Amino acid sequence: MNDDRGSLGPVHFERLYAATEDPWRFRTSGYEQAKYRTAIEALADRSFRAALEVGCSIGEMTRVLAPRCKAMLAVDIVEQPLTVARAACADQPWVRFVRMQVPQAWPDGMFDLIVLSEVLYFLSRKDIEAVAARAAGSLAADGVVLLVNWSGRSADPCTGEEAAELFIERTRGWLKPRSHVDGVGYRLDLLGRHQMRLPTSTSAQRF
């Protein structure tokens, strides 16, 4: 991991979405479709009271997960993909989309599902550690965190492997691995809470 690289900011992503509505081909890529299937399999038959998806982009994974959730908050760093996501999920009124730059901002409330799919490696080491603390502090006692990360090399602040391992290490006192999948080009990790104290005092709130 290159500790000198800062997190990628809104300008970087605004340029990507200005060039194309779907920069990573979420709708058509076989890689993406395989990830969605693996994520659903990892969650087994669970349903969720309140879910948080960080880095939702145009809402493709959001649509897949939403039927399992009573309420869902999906956030992204820029507005362009959120406009597309809102339209795509218009028939799922329990899903709400908000522009938010994580970890500088984080929603209030407790969540029993937190999804961090293909987002951590855009962040610096310091910001990944901050996201880990935020997630651990807002995860319900019976909640799970779903991590999905590309396993290839890139010019991003870190690799997906580095990002996942750092997140797991920083939450080791509060979360423990439940399952791990090495897919074709990606890794998936499902973490759940130890029956231990929270890292910070966080009361349940509506988001």
Provide the descriptors you would attach to this structure in a database record.
207 residues, alpha/beta, disordered C terminus, Rossmann fold, 7-stranded mixed β-sheet, single chain, 6 helices, 30% helix, 7 strands, globular
Number of strands: 7
Provide the succession of SSEs. Answer: HHEHEHEEHEHEE
Tally of structural domains? 1
What oligomeric state do these chains adopt? single chain
Give Rg in angstroms: 16 Å
Kindly report the name of the CATH homologous superfamily: Vaccinia Virus protein VP39
CATH fold group: Rossmann fold
Strand content: 25-35%
CATH architecture: 3-Layer(aba) Sandwich
SS content category: alpha/beta
Shape: globular
The biggest beta sheet is recorded as:
7 strands, mixed
Average pLDDT works out at 91
Head-to-tail CA distance between termini:
34 Å
CATH class: Alpha Beta
H/I helix tally: 6
Q: What are the low-pLDDT stretches, counting only 5+ consecutive residues below 50?
A: 196-206
